[in-house]
Each structure stands twice: as C-alpha cells, then as structure tokens.
Amino acid sequence: MGDHSHGSPSTSGTVATAGQSDVEKFQDPGLPPHRPRRADKDPRAEKRAERQVAILFVISIIGTVLFFVGYFGIRLDDTIATLRFQNFTLGMGTAFAMLGIGVGIVHWAKTLMPDHEIVEERHEVRTEEDRRDAEQIIGQVLDESGISRRPLIRNTLIGAGVLAILPAIGIFRDLSKDLNPEVLRHTMWDAGVRLTRDPSGTPIKASDVTIGSAFHVIPEGLNEAEHKLEEKAKAVVLLMRLNPDELNVSPGREDWNYNGIVAYSKICTHVGCPVALYEQHTHHLLCPCHQSTFDLTQECKVIFGPAAHALPQLPISVDDEGYLVATSDFHEPVGPSYWERG
C-alpha cells in the first residue's frame, strides 16, 4: 500500500472539518465606480436631454387634447365607422397622454437626475431630528431633480399632469346626466316584438332553433331605431335551446320559455361586457372579460366569477306564423348590478 497522507480529505485542506474555526470573511467590495453620462460631461447633451423630456411632456398634452376632440368633437351617427373612429381617437389620445408623462419622467431620471449610488447607515429615530431630516431629504430631492433650475421641464410636466386628469373628470361628469338607473329598466322589447338575428334583423322561427344552437338576437325594428347603438346595448339577447327536462324553472316562469327555447340578456351583470361564449355540453355561458360563468339550466344563475346577479331572462313565445316573439320586456334591469335594482 502506498502513502496516502498527502492526498486524504483530512489533510489536503479541501474539506472543512469541525475543528476548523477560523472562517475567512468576505471583504466589502464597496460601491462600483461611477460612470459619468454624456449629459454629465457635455452641457449641450444636457440641454438636448432637457428638450427631449419637455417634448415628451408636450406629447402628453397633445394626447389629452386629442382625447377631448374625440370625446366632445366627434358626434355619433349610429354608424360603425364613426364609432370606430371615435374609439380610435379616444384610445390614441389616452395612450399618448399617459405614455408621454411616463416616458418623459423615466428619461428625465435616466439622463438628468443624479445617478450616484450611496449607502446610509440606519440611525435612531428621534421626533425632531426625524422631522428635520425629512425636510432636508425633500429639499435634497428637489435640488437633485433639478426641477427648480429647469423651468422648461417643470412647466411642461405641470401642464401635462393637470391636463392628464381632465379626461377622467370629463367622463364621470358626463355620466351624471344619464346615470339614472331607470334607463336600464326599459328596452325595445315588448309583447309581440319578434326576435331577429343580429345584425341582419331576420326574424327567427322556433323551428330554426335546434338543441345546442345559439343565436345572437336583437328586437325587430332595432336597425331603424333613432338611437340604434344605445338601444342595442340594452336589448341584445342570447337565444338557445335545451331539452325541456334539463331546465329548472322557477314558479311564475313556466311560460317564459317555448319548448326549451330560452332567451337571456347578453349583458354581463358584472361590468356590462357581452356574454358571448356558450358551452353546449355544460350549458354554461361565459363572459370573456372576467370569466363570470352562468348556468343556463338554472336560469343563468352565477356559478363562478365576480358577477353578483343572474342574467335577466326575456319571456318568449311564438306568434301565429311560428316566429319567436317576446311576451314582455325584461322584468328586471339589464346590465351591471347596482344597489338601486331592487
């Protein structure tokens, strides 16, 4: 056998043992060296960065103005093209308003605000000293940000910030004129109004609706209505047919369906998104916005998701020609739940 004394784990030093008590400590590497930015060394680069930040804030201001032009200047005329143009204007205006402020502040911080890394030791908190330290920190932040000596950035930021909140104020104030919950209690549905296909307006016969099928439905005459979009937002309906034995009908609703054909409001009771997905095997209706799920066999009771109220049911029957017709309007308000609906 050879001599293994020079390569054993206990003598080679490669394996720590219980007897080794002196452990080397990691040395504090300190802060990394500061690398000056171009704006730190070149006054022209600093002014250029300042102008870039100001331009971004001006873009935010333009975006807010564009939003107001789309919101107040474009009048809807019940055509899809006008509605899409207004939505495009509102979306682009909001995007530029928010993006201009966000990118401008980030660019300001990266190019003009001090980027030195510092280490501060924690100190004992004392009331008066803490107050004075807070004042000193705030003053230091204002000084380092350069907002006091860069009026161009300061003024454009103030202008962009003030204007950016105005769209929200305008929207909520404008809602106050039509926020009466009674508006949602009445739609174009009434006794004898035929159910028609959306968007063609073609009447639907009971024989057209097979088990497992689903139709997107609007009331007859909607396409000729004066305020087509507003009326459609309240009256749009989903029409489906089940085996009548699978329906759990509440007392008083026995004549609300016709041979298993049922009609329910398409407007989700959470925030008003269109419920457009029907799973025929489970008889579930799904809202794609927040995944609220309604059970068609239980009168569209909520079985999952944030919706707090079942979808309103439209009572239906057939006329002398076999076409599906409503027997009345909805018996409850359509759309999102609110405390006045009771």
From TrEMBL:
<feature type="transmembrane region" description="Helical">
    <location>
        <begin position="53"/>
        <end position="74"/>
    </location>
</feature>
<keyword id="KW-0812">Transmembrane</keyword>
<keyword id="KW-0813">Transport</keyword>
<dbReference type="InterPro" id="IPR014349">
    <property type="entry name" value="Rieske_Fe-S_prot"/>
</dbReference>
<dbReference type="InterPro" id="IPR017941">
    <property type="entry name" value="Rieske_2Fe-2S"/>
</dbReference>
<keyword id="KW-0249">Electron transport</keyword>
<keyword id="KW-0479">Metal-binding</keyword>
<keyword id="KW-1003">Cell membrane</keyword>
<feature type="transmembrane region" description="Helical">
    <location>
        <begin position="86"/>
        <end position="109"/>
    </location>
</feature>
<dbReference type="Pfam" id="PF19297">
    <property type="entry name" value="QcrA_N"/>
</dbReference>
<keyword id="KW-0408">Iron</keyword>
<feature type="domain" description="Rieske">
    <location>
        <begin position="261"/>
        <end position="325"/>
    </location>
</feature>
<protein>
    <recommendedName>
        <fullName>Cytochrome bc1 complex Rieske iron-sulfur subunit</fullName>
    </recommendedName>
</protein>
<keyword id="KW-1133">Transmembrane helix</keyword>
<keyword id="KW-0560">Oxidoreductase</keyword>
<feature type="region of interest" description="Disordered">
    <location>
        <begin position="1"/>
        <end position="46"/>
    </location>
</feature>
<dbReference type="InterPro" id="IPR045603">
    <property type="entry name" value="QcrA_N"/>
</dbReference>
<keyword id="KW-0679">Respiratory chain</keyword>
<keyword id="KW-0411">Iron-sulfur</keyword>
<keyword id="KW-1015">Disulfide bond</keyword>
<feature type="compositionally biased region" description="Polar residues">
    <location>
        <begin position="7"/>
        <end position="20"/>
    </location>
</feature>
<keyword id="KW-0001">2Fe-2S</keyword>
<comment type="similarity">
    <text>Belongs to the Rieske iron-sulfur protein family.</text>
</comment>
<dbReference type="Pfam" id="PF00355">
    <property type="entry name" value="Rieske"/>
</dbReference>
<dbReference type="InterPro" id="IPR036922">
    <property type="entry name" value="Rieske_2Fe-2S_sf"/>
</dbReference>
<comment type="function">
    <text>Iron-sulfur subunit of the cytochrome bc1 complex, an essential component of the respiratory electron transport chain required for ATP synthesis. The bc1 complex catalyzes the oxidation of menaquinol and the reduction of cytochrome c in the respiratory chain. The bc1 complex operates through a Q-cycle mechanism that couples electron transfer to generation of the proton gradient that drives ATP synthesis.</text>
</comment>
<keyword id="KW-0472">Membrane</keyword>
